[in-house]
Amino acid sequence: MSTPEIHVLPTSLRNQIAAGEVVERPSSVVKELVENSIDAGSTQVDVVVERGGQGFIAVKDNGHGVAADQLKLAVTRHATSKISNVDDLAAITSFGFRGEALPSIASVSRFKMSSCRKGADEGWFIHVEGGDVADEGPAAIPSGTSVEVRDLFFNVPARLKFLKTENTEARRCNQVLFKVALANVGAGFSFTSNGREQFRLPAGQTLPERLAVFWPRNICESLLEFSHEAGDMKVHGCAGIPGLAQGRGDRIVMFVNGRPVQDKLLLSAIRGAYKGRLISREYPQAVLFLELPPELVDVNVHPAKMEVRFQEESSVFSIIRNGIGQALSRYELGIVEGDSHFERQSEMPVRPVLREKKLSESVSLPIEPAAKFSSWNEFKNTDFTAMDDEPEAAASFVKTDFTSSMAEHRPEPDMVHERPMDYTAQEVQAAEQNQHEPFAAGPVFVPGSRIEYLGQVVDTYLVLKLPNGSLGLLDQHAAHERVIYENMKSLRTRGESRPLALPIDIALHPSEVQRVQEMWEDLQAAGFMLELESGQTLSMRGIPPGLETGEAREYLKAAVDGQAKTLDDLWIMLSCKSAIKANLSLAVDEALSLLEAWVKCPQREYCPHGRPVLVSWSALEMEKLFKRK
């Protein structure tokens, strides 16, 4: 067998190989042509496709156009007006720059490009089939450029079998134009498929107005706009509220210097901003624009330019997380504090009707559940993050004795609620013997806030009237998780530890030894006093002050076997284990103490796992539930 000789590939074959990188499907053609239109300064771009783009694609713009003597160069590989030397690659500000898109498209289709330079008397066209110029000449066309692509992949039939249905391919073309339109709200766009106009976007829309054409109304109306700068970097855009998160990430759209990208770092930063607000399988809605000096980002990584590389990845991650995080924090604060940013519904106060009755009469007497703690101090001290030797730390959980504040809302001994059904004499007697605080007539204000506590339902949810007039239900377990978690973050990084009289040894698997070494400093900061003996035995000699020995061993074992991968994961696990549970009756003072501590927490709207703590209904939403609207 003879050895093949090295030879230069024919031009048509070289173009088809390049097309394999650039022209994956019809939507790739739309992307390249529309980006060329934006680079040309167009303020109106119209796209038409037929048969999903496989049969016909047309992109027409009103940009500055191409001179007649340059049309042949436009369909020649590595010919471009956007860069001139190697230094330009370090500061690319245009969408296209390689000079491969037009010749690649022309090599796998029947391609016609007509253009008229602004100020020119007439335009010019060039017709290319399969990479070969078939015809050219003058064209009657206004200023701008029109590109027509017919019979895509007609000479590469093997590529056709990888295309999806015509509807799917048309939808992908639609999405490509949608992303470009978001990054260029100053320009107008239209998209027509099989003779039917799918959308028309006027120039000068705002980002929310443009999004409203494509996303559901409820999502667009609740988007939070954000803008944040750090040094030479700026991030801005819109982020969805966590309550409307979804199970797919298809409504996360990212741009770097106006270029739509798919980047794991940016996605990780966006999800990092929602950490603690969403569960792991949920995705928010977000439109993110990152702007930074072009020399700090490499866009010449992928042939389709969908991937980028950053010089300062940590800075990029931080600015995105902080920008979105600040918007979410303002939103959460507004719900609890009644910020005017949120719609205020007319308040419709409902007050209980009181009338004088003696307990000896047959009355409807609400019986308050018995307290689970013998005293206020016992309840307060159940929070293990409040250390006995640090009264200020304990006060960070609850600062006020509610005995005096509750007295203002209690009825006189002979004043009781009017209720629709009567209790038995035995129940009345039990109520008289109950040593716990009597039922408070009417709502009770949570100290330090404008939230009204109305009661508890199914021994799990606290019923609230929020400052903006909405009705709220608060999950007591999730709220207590957040309180404990935030206290642990502030108190469990000092290294305080309670020595054990007898060390506890834990045998480790070799893989667990590495985990212990990785988490060593975090575990010490959390209050674990440890020694690693003989390479595979972990000796626990001290534990966090608020934990029982058995609990400390359980949590430590969970950390080293991978259940808690970071100190934050360990805190989350500890807070969940220690928080009050669902199906547990709370007395009024217990509920108030929990609420007072909760309203002081950052990210109070979500438990550390990302589940919602509070759900609410405005007056309008309640009217819809009762079909008044």
Outline the structure in words:
There is one protein chain. By secondary structure, this protein is an alpha+beta fold. Among the domains are: 11-198, Heat Shock Protein 90 (2-Layer Sandwich); 208-337, Ribosomal Protein S5, domain 2 (2-Layer Sandwich). Helices cover 32% and strands 22% of the residues. It contains 20 helices and 25 strands. It has an eight-stranded mixed β-sheet, covered by helices on one side. Strands 9-10-13-11-12 form a five-stranded mixed β-sheet. β18 and β19 form a beta hairpin. α2 (26-39) packs parallel to α6 and α15 (476-491) packs across α19. The longest helix is centred in the middle third of the chain and has 25 residues, at 313-337. The chain is elongated and about 95 Å long. Mean pLDDT is 78; it is low at 339-425 and 430-441.
| Strands, total number | 25
Nearest-integer average pLDDT: 78
Largest sheet: 8 strands, mixed
Nearest-angstrom radius of gyration? 33 Å
Percent strand: 15-25%
CATH architecture of the domain at 11-198: 2-Layer Sandwich
The CATH superfamily label of the domain at 11-198 reads Histidine kinase-like ATPase, C-terminal domain
Percent helix range: 25-40%
Order of strands across the main sheet: 5-4-3-6-2-1-7-8
Give the termini separation: 84 Å
Class based on secondary structure composition and strand pairing: alpha+beta
- Count of DSSP H/I helices: 20
Using the coordinates above, name the CATH class of the domain at 11-198. Answer: Alpha Beta
Write out key terms for the chains shown.
629 residues, alpha+beta, Heat Shock Protein 90, five-stranded mixed sheet, 32% helix, 22% strand
